Amino acid sequence: MKLPVLLMTLILSPFACGITPESSDTGAASRIEEQRANLAKATENAGFGPQSPRHIGDVRGENPIRFSTALSFSEMNLCNIHFHKNAEHAGGEFTQYAGDGDGHGFQSGYVYTGKLTTKERAPVQSAACPSAHDALQSGDTIEVHYVFSSAQVTPGPTLGACLSETNINPQLRVEAQVFVLVNDEEALDFTDLTAIETESGYQQAPNIPIDTGTPIAYAGSTTGPSYNEAGSPLQVSWSVRPSVAKVNIGSVAQWCEGNVFNEDHAHGVRNLVVNTKLLSPIEH
């Protein structure tokens, strides 16, 4: 059985708070505000559930749609790992607005607010994970999404790896961790952070950091800039860690050269969702 056309469209998109970010460019700012207005219009009375990303420090939310919280990731299958340049979420140690960017998800988002040493920030000779839009350099921030599915699947490229012909409506969970890239071989190794093992019959990422604060859990959606003006119809249980970890940029570059997810660059970010009608209340 073939997946429905809607889901086939969705799997091509990557995991894609009433605080309005400051604007650094009037043109881009007007585009982002226009996108937010278009998103509000497209989703008004349309039945969309709560959206992502959000400010994890703001608990407000008025979206009435509820869905069951996904199981713990230890009881689900890891299906995909990818990352975005700059954090899609805001809060914790990533509250500094990167700017409005190009209006299409690049050079925007949020960055690490902590301090790095001169050595940690020293540029590497070749920027990591280059793409037509950008590349990564020491000091950059990334938000990594470890995606889990209740379907009987194995890790692979895109959201399509989280679905199967026998289960096209699985529970989805994202464990999110923000990292800052440093020029330091003693920092965390991205290859280790993305290692895959089978534990108790489930595909797992056993080295997700456990020392970066209590995750903020909330009900949301898939992300990515393709949803800047359209609601995401998929329901996702999110856990976003508030503290940032340092990762060796060299190990990230190595990972981009070959992995089972076919990821070779950083994705753009979806505009922070600030319309409380599109947000779930965060319950502590």
What's a quick, concise take on this entry?
The chain is 14% helix and 19% strand.
Low-confidence stretches: 1-24
Overall strand count: 10
Overall shape:
globular
Q: What's the N-to-C terminus distance?
A: 41 Å
Q: Calculate the mean pLDDT score and round it.
A: 92
| Major sheet | 6 strands, mixed
Structural class: alpha+beta
Count, helices: 5
Q: Give the ordered list of helices and strands.
A: HHEEEHEEHEEEEEH
Portion in beta strands: 15-25%
Write the topology of this structure.
Layout: H1 5-10, H2 26-43, E1 77-85, E2 96-97, E3 110-111, H3 118-121, E4 141-149, E5 172-182, H4 190-193, E6 197-199, E7 202-204, E8 216-220, E9 236-240, E10 245-248, H5 249-256
Question: Would you give an account of this structure?
Answer:
The chain is an alpha+beta fold and 284 residues long. It has one domain (5-278). It has helices at 5-10, 26-43, 118-121, 190-193, 249-256, and strands at residues 77-85, 96-97, 110-111, 141-149, 172-182, 197-199, 202-204, 216-220, 236-240, 245-248. The strands form 3 sheets. Strands 1, 4, 5, 8, 9 and 10 form a 6-stranded mixed beta sheet that branches. It starts with a helix and ends in a 28-residue tail after the last helix.
List keywords for this structure.
about 280 residues, about 15% helix, two-stranded antiparallel ribbon, 10 strands, 6-stranded mixed β-sheet, disordered N terminus, single chain, alpha+beta, 5 helices
